[in-house]
Design goal:
The chain is of the alpha/beta class. It has 10 helices and 9 strands. It is about 45% helix and about 15% strand. The radius of gyration is 18 Å and the shape is globular.
Length: about 250
């Protein structure tokens, strides 16, 4: 987002969510059906249809896609990767074709972050994906890296990523998570701090995102209480430390 404050970002996210919910009802005849993190879950027939609705929602809310608001994509490819092939849109793609597909998405839609574009086991092709979308979108590792120093080290060595999705309880302790964070920073990577499915209303993750100055905070929808609790905590932190946030890029 192009917003300069957490407050502005939340207003923009809420505006787009409200319009998207209305469009989903108009186009698919269903009311709010949400995923674990509170995102809308209409029965899209293709991935491109989903992106197109997201762009339409941004425009209908009065913002400019690719200028005011961007898209971050969690492909979660490991879940449809079988026998070294990807099953996508009822088609079968090899790794090169999957990379070409993702590159097409990035070129066509205002996508600035691609999370788990390839399977966690498809190590040989991750560097190719990173090179294909470099300068346009982050190549963000979640399942590939697991906030694990050994896997992060390997990814740095082969040039597999340029961003880390950091989950503290994925590695186990804040100390281990900090080690992973420092590894990513030393490699010049971006860091996205993420919470998990099944979250409570504990707000510690917001404090950690602010304290470690994560580049992004992946928290989920603005319409569920366990997510809103963390956004409200960010608002409190921002209000108490306005000078610290003045030049901090903090897209939500």
């Amino acid at each position: 987002m192009s917003s300069k404050t957490v407050d502005e970002a939340l207003v923009m996210a809420s505006d787009v969510y409200r319009v998207a919910a209305s469009l989903v009802f108009q186009k698919y005849g269903i009311r709010l059906l949400t995923a674990d993190e509170g995102g809308l879950a209409p029965p899209f027939s293709t991935v491109e249809e989903m992106f197109s609705l997201a762009v339409e929602s941004i425009e209908a809310a009065g913002y400019v896609p690719g200028r005011g608001i961007f898209l971050g994509v969690d492909v979660d490819s490991t879940h449809f990767y079988k026998e070294k092939q990807y099953e996508l849109n009822t088609g079968i793609l090899d790794s090169d074709a999957m990379i070409k597909t993702i590159t097409g998405w990035v070129n066509r839609f205002p996508i600035i972050s691609v999370e788990d574009g390839l399977s966690e086991d498809d190590w040989d092709h991750w560097p190719t994906l990173r090179q294909a979308i470099a300068g346009k979108a982050l190549t963000l590792g979640d399942d590939l890296l697991c906030t694990n120093p050994d896997r992060i080290r390997r990814a740095i060595e082969v040039g597999a990523c340029d961003a880390l999705l950091l989950k503290v309880n994925q590695i186990g302790t804040p100390t281990e998570a900090l080690a992973a964070y420092k590894q990513a920073r030393s490699a010049g990577w971006s860091v996205t701090l993420s919470v998990r499915s099944g979250e409570t209303e504990d707000t510690w993750a917001a404090d950690l995102a602010a304290g470690w100055q994560a580049d992004q905070f992946k928290n989920g929808s603005v319409r569920q209480s366990e997510r809103l609790a963390k956004y409200n905590r960010l608002l409190e932190i921002e209000e108490a430390n306005k000078w610290r946030f003045a030049n901090w890029p903090f897209p939500l």
